Amino acid sequence: MSERQTYFQPLSPRETEIAWKGMGRDFKRIDAWHEAGQEAYDVASGSVLDVVDALTEPFQASHQLGYLLHTAVDHLHALKMLLADAKAQHTFAPYTLIRGAIEAASAALWLLRDDAPQEVALRAMKLEYMNLRDETRATRAVDATAQHNEIQRDLLQQVLTRNDMTIRGGKDKITATEMVQTADSDFRVPNAYLTWQMCSAAAHGRPWVKQVLTLFEVHDDDGLSKTLSGQLSSNQMALALALRTACDILEKARTVRSSSAP
User: Fold this and answer.
1) Domain range for residue 245?
2) Quick check: is 23 in a domain?
3) How far apart are the first and last CA of the chain?
């Protein structure tokens, strides 16, 4: 079978059924996380996160974690509403939501990669530094003379000084790639990095990924023409696998977070 013919193979009814059943199970997980809300992020006295919160006061790391986990759930719940409730199946848009969930949940895992409070606190401060830097860049897009949020910057420096920590600006830059690789390698979530790469490609319109994430129904193909008439549609199996990976990363992040704040 040629590459051309392989790309045009549709999913069988059985494959489609399996894909939707798998997504249905993940939708139930997403609904449960959404209903749990912020109540799932309490911190017990004397726990690792309680110690980290004291180190990072007033930038409590537990609040940062709650924000990341909420962001991941929010993206996945929006996807669930789109697919299950509105029954709207777009070609590439679902992968932008999955990508956002993967990045937020992976950031939470990166933050909790070590159980030593000092290390967690330093990572939390690096994320706060990134947030302050990004805020300044966004503000300067409106006002080129805008400066850092001096109040937040001073508070951040106080926390660093109090804990004998140093952030070296560009040398300590953290990327989404590093965070997602943490989910893949350190926490053994299968295909986390590959799934994120494919979702990122879908979000940025990279053509290479269409052969993995989409199906193409040919309306008229003589086997020779370079231009084909047809319809590009979502590959439900690829979507189900990507959603499963995102949910697994988020579940791992919630589990690790809970073990740090029993």
Assistant:
1) 17-118+178-259
2) yes
3) 55
Beta pairing class for 229-234 and 214-220: antiparallel
> 């609040």: which residue's tokens?
63
Q: Which helix (H) or strand (E) holds 126?
A: helix 117-140
DSSP letter string, 45-57:
TTSHHHHHHHHHT
What pLDDT does residue 10 have?
80
Burial class (CB in 10 A: 0-12, 13-18, 19+), 95: buried
DSSP character for 89? -
Give the model's pLDDT for residue 39: 67
Here the tokens at position 16 are 């489609």
User: Does any domain span residue 251?
Assistant: yes
Tell me phi and psi for residue 25, to 5 degrees: -65, -40
Tokens 């401060």 belong to residue: 125
Mean pLDDT of 120-143: 90
Phi-psi region of 46 (alpha: psi -120 to 50; beta: other; left: phi over 0): left
**Beta partners for residue 215, in sequence order:** 233
